[in-house]
Amino acid sequence: MSTVTVAPGALSGTVRAISSKSDAHRNLICAALASEPTAFSPFTPSADIDATISCLSALGASFTALPDGGVTVIPGQPLEAPLLDCGESGSTLRFLLPVAAALGCGASFCGHGRLPERRVTALLEALQKNGCTPSSAQLPLSLSGRLAPGKYEIVGNESSQYISGLLFALPLTGGDCSLRIVGPLSSRGYVDMTLRTVRRFGITVRETEEGFEIPGGQHYRSPGTASLEGDWSNAAFFLVAVACGYGVTVTGLAETSVQRDREIANLLSLFGAQLACRDGSVTVSPGRLTGRRIDVDQIPDLLPVLSVLACAAEGETLLENAARLRDKESDRLATTAAMLRALGGLVEEFPDALRIQGVGRLHGGTVDGAGDHRIVMAAAVAAGISDAPVAIHGAEAVRKSYPGFFEDLKALGGSCHGVTVWHKSEG
C-alpha cells in the first residue's frame, strides 16, 4: 500500500482534462461490436479501462496503439467460453454481462476488490427472464443460453449501468425489443451518454413513456474515427481546488457534454466561486463560499469533492439522495465522512446524506483511501485548505480512473511526496 503526502500550497497554471472514462467504456464496447475498426483519440488508459479492454479482447476484439496516443479497436469473434476478468470495474461488469449474454458465448465473469460484493441481482434476473441463465447471483459466475428478443424490464434507481448494459446488448438479439424502466431513473446523464454512443455506431433506440424500444435487424456500424470527451468527473477535483483559493484553468471540457458531472461548474457558482468558461476551458477564481443543499442523485460521483468544498464554505451543506453511494468502490458515504473527520471536518452521516458544517480550514492529518480513487483525490484536494500536510494511505487507488492525478497536481505546483508513477499495466 502506497502513502502519498500532500502539503498545503497554492496551485497555478493550466491542466488538460483526461479523456472521459465513462465515454471510453461506452465507445470501446460499441467499437468492439461493430463490423469495421474504429480509431479513438485522445485516449487515457486507466485500470478500469484496462479491465474493459481485457474483457473485450476475450470477446474477440484486438487493440492497436496509435502514434498520437490514441487506440484502434478491431472487432473479432468471441473466444470459446471466454473468461472476463472485470478487475474492480463496476461499469465493465454491468455493461458486459448483458453483452456476453446476447452473444451467447458461454462467458464466465470474475472480479476483485469490492466488485464481487456489488449488486447485480436485478440485472441477472432480467437476463434470466429472457433466455440466459447465470450460475450464481454474484461473482464469480458463468452464463449459459442466449438472450432472446422481447420485453425487458429493469429497476431505474439501483444503477444506471444496468440500463446501459441492456441498451448495448438488445440490438444484438436480432429482433424487436422493449426495455421498461421501473420507478424513477437515477443518473439519467449516464444513460444519455450510452444513447449518444450507440447512435454514433448506427443503432436506433426510441424513447417511450415507459423506457425504450430497440427495433430488430440492427448492426453496429463503425464511424471510422471518433473522439472522446474530456472527463468532467475528474476535472472536478482541480476545479474545486481552485475554488478553495487557487487559480487554475482546466482545458478540454465540452460545455455541451451529456456528462451530468459538468454540473460542477454551476455548483461552484452556486457556492460563490467565480467561473469563466470559454472555448472548452474552465477557469475558477475564489470567492466567498456559502454552504448549500445539493441533491446528488444525478451526480453521485461528485459527492466526495463537494464535501471538501462544503468544508471550505461558510454555514451548512447538505448532500442528499446519496444512498446509492454505499455500493461503490467503498461505502462512499461512510468513507467520505471518515476522510473529513480525520482532517478536522464536522460531518453527520445519514442513511442517504451527509450534513457538513463549514469550518473554513482543516487541520490536516492521515486519511485511509479505502481503496477508492475518488476518496484519495478528494483528500488530496483537501490538503489545499489544511494547515498541515495530508497523508493518504492507499493512494495507488487513483490508477482506477486517473493514474496521472498526482503528476498533474505536481505540475500545477502541488507538493506531493511518495508518488509512484502508476502505469496502466499495474492496474
Task: Provide a quick synopsis of the model.
This protein is of the alpha/beta class and 427 residues long.
Into how many domains do the coordinates divide?
2
Spans of at least 5 consecutive residues with low confidence: none
The radius of gyration is 21 Å
The helicity comes to 25-40%
Structural class: alpha/beta
How many strand elements?
A: 24
Written account of the structure:
The chain is of the alpha/beta class and 427 residues long. It has two domains: 213 residues, UDP-n-acetylglucosamine1-carboxyvinyl-transferase, Chain, CATH 3.65.10; 193 residues, Enolpyruvate transferase domain (UDP-n-acetylglucosamine1-carboxyvinyl-transferase, Chain), CATH 3.65.10. The chain is 30% helix and 23% strand. It is built from twelve helices and 24 strands. The strands form six sheets. A four-stranded mixed β-sheet has the order 22-23-1-24. The chain has a four-stranded mixed β-sheet with strand order 2-15-17-16, covered by helices on one side. The chain has a four-stranded mixed β-sheet with strand order 4-5-3-14. β8 and β9 form a beta hairpin. α7 runs parallel beside α11. The radius of gyration is 21 Å and the shape is globular. The mean pLDDT is 94.
